Each structure stands twice: as C-alpha cells, then as structure tokens.
Amino acid sequence: MTLGFGDYLSLLGGESLLTGLVMVMVLLGLYLKNKNIQGYLALAGLAVALILTIGADRTMGPIFFGTMEVDPLSQFFKLVFISVSLIVVLAGLSRYKDSPSQDEFYILLLLATIGMMVVASSIDILTLWVGFELASLSTYAMAAFDKEKKNLEAAMKYFIFGATSSAAMLFGFSLLYGLTGTTKIAEIAAASIETMGPATLVALIFVVAGFGFKMALVPFHMWAPDTYEGAPTVVTAFLAAGSKKMGFVAAFKVILIALMALRLEWFMAFAVLVAITMTLGNVVAIWQKSVKRMLAYSSVAYAGYIAIAFVVVGAANNGGFDIAVAQGGLAASLMLILGHAFSKTGAFIAVAVVGYMALREGKDNPDDIEHYAGLGRRAPITAFCMLVFIFSLSGIPPTAGFIGKLLVWGSTIDSGLIWLGVLFALNSALSLYYYLRVIMYMYMKEPAGAKIIEPRGYVAAMVVALVAVFYIGLFPQAFVDFAYSAAAVLLH
Amino acid sequence: MIPLVLYVLLASAMFAIGLYGLLTQRNGIKLMMCVEILLNSAIINLVAFSAYLPNVNGQVFALFAIALAAAEAGIGFAIMIALYRLYGTIELDNINALRW
Lengths: 492, 100
Prior knowledge:
The complex is a heterodimer of chains A (492) and B (100). Chain A is mainly α and 492 residues long. Chain A has a domain of 228 residues. Chain A is 78% helix and 1% strand. Chain A has 20 helices and 2 strands. Chain A is globular, with a radius of gyration of 21 Å. The chains are: A mainly alpha (492), B mainly alpha (100).
C-alpha cells in the first residue's frame, strides 16, 4: 500500500509540527526584540504535538521504506518525551524570562525532543542513530547553557562520554551491518540467528556500551552524577527524565530484539549489572549533601530498576518462551519509566526553585540540603510538590511510582528471580532513608529565612507533574493497558 | 582486490588507538581527535562492508555518519572554546570541581 503525503503528515504529525515550529522560531529569534513569546510558542506547539501523537493511527505498519513505524511502543515513549519537554518549557518560562538567548533554549529543547521521537519510531539502525545524535547534540549544548564554570565542566564531561559512546554504538552497528547485510532491526535479528558467532557478540557488546552510557548503567554511569549536578537544573530535569528514557527505548528496540533472537544465557550478566547499578546508586546517594546530586544518584539507581526488564525477559526466554511473563516484565518497566519521568522532572524543578531562592539570598551552594530547612513554611507549594515527588520516587501509594515499582516487583517474582525481587525491595527501603531526610528538613526544621514568592512558571510545571503523578497513581488501568500493548510490539 | 579482513583489521586498530588516546590523554583537543578516530574507524567499516556485500546501505550510512561527525565536532569545539574563556586552559585535569 502506498501512502500519500497526508498519511505521513497524520502519522508523524507531532514530529512534523515541531520541526516546522523550530524553523519558525529560529527565524523569529532574529527579528524579535522581546523573546518571551518564544516560550509560549514552544508550549503551544508541544501541547498540539501531544494531541496529534495521541491521535495518530497505530496500525499502519512500517513507513518510509521500512525505516520507521508508528506503533503503541513508539507512541508511549513519545508521550513521555513530549510531556517531559512540556513541563521543562513551563519551568523555562520562569527560568529564562527576559534572557536574551532564551529562544535558543527552547529551540534546542524542541530539537532534542524531535530526536527522541525519531528514536522511538525508528525500526532501522540508521534512523535510530541519526535520531540519537540529534537528541545528544542538542542536549550537549543545553548542558552548557548558562556558561557558568559548573555548566561547562558538566557539558564537557557529558560531551566526551557521549561522543565516545555514540562512536562505540556506530562501530557496533557497522559490524552488525557487515555480518547481516541489512540495517533493518528485525532483519538483523533474523539473520543473526543463522550467522551467530563471536563476531555477533562483539558487535552487541559495542552496542550495549553505547546505549549503557545513555541509560547510565554501571559501569557506564560515571558521567551522570557530574553532568546532572553541573548542568542548569531545568536541563538536568530534561536529561534525567527524557534523554535517559531515549536510551531505554533504543535498548528495548535493538538489544532486546537481538538478544532474544540469540537465545543465549545472557540474562545473568545483565542481572549482575542491574544488581550493582541499583545498589551503587542508592548507597552513594546516602552520602550526598547536595540534593541535586542525591537525585542524580537516585537516577542511576532507577536505571537499574528499569533495566530489570532485560533480566525478566531473558529469564522468560530461558528454555521455552513464556510470553506472558516477558510482556508483564516489559510493561512493568514501561510503567516505571512513566512514573519516573514525571516524578524526576518535578523533583528537579523543585530543586530549581530552592536553588533560585538560595542564589537570591547570595548563598554559595544553591543545592545544599541546608537550604531545604523549613521549606514547608518558606515555599509551601514547592515543598508539598517535592513531598509528593519523593513519595512517588520511593514508591508510596497512591502515586505513579508506586504502580511502577509494584509491577516490577511482581514481574521479578513471576519470572522466578526471587533474589532480584528481594534485592529490589531492599534497595527501595534503602532509598527511603535519603528521601525521608529531605522531607525531615522540609517539614521539621526551623525555617532558615523568610517566606518567598515562588516563580509562576516553576509552580505551573510542578503542578502539571503533580497532577500527572496522582492521576497515573489513582487511575492506572488505562496506562497499564497501554504499556501492555506497547510491550506486545516488542514480543510479537 | 584487497581482502575484506584487512579493512576490518584497519578499522579495529583505529578504534583501539582512539580508545587508548581517550583513556590516556587529558587535553581537550586531543580527546576530540580521538573521538574523530573512533567515528572514522566505524565509517571505514561501513564502506568496506558496503563494497563487499555488495549493498549500498552502508555507504548511505557512512555519509550520514560523516555529516553527524562534523556537527559533533562543531558542538565539541564550541564547548572547548567556552571552557578556555572561563578557565584559561583546556587541560581537563585542571577542570575538576564536580566530584563524589
């Protein structure tokens, strides 16, 4: 069946709209004196893109000569990316108000979102790599956005690690292409069953290393805490909630499909990686004085939780394929991704409010936990939102994070990996320690200063994230069904 | 005709050299050169496989990779220049405020 221009436009409406908008915004930026309107343009564009993405037909099959596909999996991730981007734009409305270069911030943010959406839709390693690079290059520039010493150091580390990882990924892709003679992921998986050998494994190791950097799995996590701490806080929110999830969708698409085809006993290797990742993230987070860095390490721990899906699928594939267990595991980690995206974005934006407050008072370390003392009275909305996001991150009902953690825990038990389930529960309990410390500072300590006026953009961003966290937590059924149909795409 | 294995060996050697440079060098520009070597090793692989398969996908992939490598170098140099303006150096050992 040949598709016309109109069909493509309706299938990839979100991407087309955002691409067009970016071009308009670049031109407008040259002429406008007051650039505050650019943020509202980006906001409107993202809102419309969200609606277009929800409305896109998910049954059309491969498009663009079999390089992209619009299916439940791609739409699930696109919704996550657009929502995170929307929340970050809302925060940016306050953060970069009246800044002379604010249009560049929104343009880079939209370009990164487009790149992530391309990754979510691609079923060919060429489009996947191009989308990956578009998102990476935009976020390198965003990490350095304020051009302060910390920003630049963060951006430099992010750039060196990111460029190395994308080169390793490209090398792995080139070997996969040489071994199978095709760039389509499904054909690569089918062909690697016949030509399976040490070379295929080497290629996959390079690809795993490339994606591992973006996902911040141990031992590829070293850049993450430094970059998250040093980058401007609204950008950190985007990196932790958006960019990291792009690593996961790419890994689901390539690594999972390739590994399932190989039917090796590879999942134990992943189980060890996952166990180390979540334990290291949580243990190191305990020592942190800076709340931003603590959240960064908790992000590393979350990478471990989400990657449990690889282990569960591997265990389900071990001797006869138990598709129900595999689907449950994948859907669980998709729900965890959804919950983590909203809670982490919100939490980092709350950190941004406190940093803004501390900087106005002329303090040195704007992210230090001391500034959270008595936040419940100094900035009541921020403190309450932070409380909810922390509950969600630690998995307390009725929040989105609770649903995700419950499902992941259930999936480890279903697949017979009891030890991993126990370790996951222990790690969640451990994380409560450092999360509760923040809550203790916010509500039980005496305020360190006067009540402040919370900037409106930040408040709007946090409220949107708050509503999403509660909505998913209270009415999870529609989202869980969506996650199951998305998981089915990978396992058909 | 040169056997395919020689091309793959060349690419692997280049990848190893680039990785060694990334691990040992501490100058920003040298690190960027090492990243370029890594990318170019993958491009050699793609073109060699494409010629031997024969299948044009690899050459298309290589063209995209070359363009993106240029964009990546652009961003990288921009970050390095901004670093130099603030710190007065691009020796990365001197730029280390963020740790543990």
